[in-house]
């Protein structure tokens, strides 16, 4: 069964937070939206709030659930569940990632994404340009 992973599309002042996985993580050096696995007993929103606090030290509020993507990597299958999120408080401090950037929407397609993220970036761009 697919492992559920939630990720945050965090918007602030028209930019989106993107994080680069470290050399020592699965999918090394690829870009992703911060997040992580949903633990037993947690709602998706609870895991997302917890992961974002643990990984980048921000407090966020999940707003809209976009379309989940099921992707098979060589060793596992994940269901990546994206939420747009609003920034509430905190200053970015990376616990695990190699780097981060606040990206312009028009630059999002330039990153080397984890493969599971590509349809999510595409949907997000469609959704945001429709506003
Ligand atoms: N957080 C996050 N993970 C993603 C994204 N896209 C994507 O393919 N992934 C993958 C990478 C990991 O294999 C898995 C997320 O699990 P995780 O971030 O907790 O990874 P982990 O270091 O605990 O991995 P593991 O060795 O325990 O499997 O999902 C994304 O946008 N955000």
From TrEMBL:
Its cofactor is Mg(2+). The keyword Endoplasmic reticulum does not apply. Gene3D superfamilies: Nucleoside Triphosphate Pyrophosphohydrolase (3.90.79.10). SUPFAM superfamilies: Nudix. Keywords: DNA damage, DNA repair, DNA replication, Hydrolase, Magnesium, Metal-binding, Mutator protein. Pfam families: NUDIX (PF00293). It catalyses: 8-oxo-dGTP + H2O = 8-oxo-dGMP + diphosphate + H(+); 8-oxo-GTP + H2O = 8-oxo-GMP + diphosphate + H(+). It is an enzyme of class 3 (hydrolase). Residues 1-127 form the Nudix hydrolase domain. It comes from the Bacteria. GO terms for molecular function: hydrolase activity. Its EC number is 3.6.1.55. InterPro entries: MutT-like, Nudix_hydrolase, NUDIX_hydrolase-like_dom_sf, NUDIX_hydrolase_dom. Belongs to the Nudix hydrolase family. This is 8-oxo-dGTP diphosphatase. It comes from Pontibacter ruber.
